[in-house]
Design a protein that fits this description.
single chain, alpha+beta, four-stranded antiparallel β-sheet, 11 helices
Length: about 290
């Protein structure tokens, strides 16, 4: 990474190369934020799928409250005797009132309000849903059995869309960085064309010339990547803390694991390698074609 004074003078005279420090800082910052978003939403989508897998809600509808509650209690007791059912618990009236309060307000607490009886069911085997439905319908033909995953499928789909969008942004930012490196290197070649011709006459090879530009790009990319990477990690940590402070069970799952943090932290190093490879390939191809 260290260059001789003469090498630094040759490279530093190319004004376009110095801009790579700022370009790399911006590119790394935006790419790391996009990668953090993608990894966090992917993890949240997986957690949501695991949490809702095999969970059902049984809804008992009856005009008489005593009949409704007795039917719900009987169905729940019978479900608990089935080996494929891990859990079957009726939802109490206080919980139902709390769930209905955003729509009904204080009216949801009215004891005369005909609220369906609900049973939360968790299956040990996802394929046991048909037998559970048959049991429930035998006891109460008007009952409904709904998979909780079906209610949240739009949310899971949205999270997966965000994940793919973030991945596309990472790829686009990496491609844009490679293009900027190529343009900067070509500008440097044009600025030092006469000097490079003299170096060739003195016996320097294309690879040796390419190393000068590769070293300069590596230094600029390392400095810019470090600045942009630190800024991105700080912003990601602040946003993660703000999301956790919201107290939402769903949004609280949008968080980075230690493995995710490690993957995000490797991006500056990847951008340095990308810049070095792009610079080397660009210089060697340009010199072989023109000099």
């Amino acid at each position: 990474m260290r260059a001789a004074p003469a090498d630094r003078r040759v490279l530093d005279e190319a004004g376009g190369v110095r801009a790579m420090t700022w370009v790399m800082a911006i590119m790394v910052f935006l790419t790391m934020l996009a990668a953090a978003l993608g990894l966090a939403t992917a993890g949240a989508a997986r957690s949501l799928d695991r949490g809702l897998a095999g969970k059902l809600t049984v809804q008992i509808v009856a005009g008489d409250a005593a009949t409704r509650d007795a039917t719900a209690a009987g169905i729940a007791a019978e479900l608990r005797t089935r080996p494929q059912v891990q859990r079957a618990a009726p939802v109490d009236r206080a919980t139902m009132t709390r769930l209905l309060s955003p729509w009904l307000g204080s009216e949801g607490a009215d004891p005369d309000l005909p609220v369906p009886a609900m049973i939360d069911v968790e299956l040990a085997d996802g394929g046991a849903r048909a037998s559970v439905e048959a049991l429930v319908r035998a006891r109460s033909p008007s009952a409904r059995v709904d998979a909780q995953a079906a209610w949240m499928s739009p949310v899971g789909g949205f999270m997966r869309t965000l994940t793919w969008l973030a991945a596309a942004v990472v790829v686009l930012m990496a491609s844009a960085t490679a293009v900027v490196v190529v343009l900067a290197v070509r500008a440097g070649l044009e600025a030092h064309r006469a000097t490079i011709e003299v170096m060739h006459m003195l016996g320097s090879t294309d690879v040796q010339v390419a190393r000068l530009f590769q070293r300069r790009i590596a230094i600029d990319a390392a400095i810019g990547g470090a600045c942009g990477g630190v800024a991105a990690l700080v912003v990601a940590a602040i946003l993660g803390a703000r999301v956790s402070a919201l107290g939402s069970d769903l949004l609280g799952q949008v968080a980075l694991t230690p493995v995710d943090w490690g993957l995000v932290a490797t991006l500056p190093f990847c951008f340095v390698m990308l810049g070095m490879v792009a610079a080397r390939v660009s210089v060697t191809r340009a010199l072989s074609a023109t000099l």
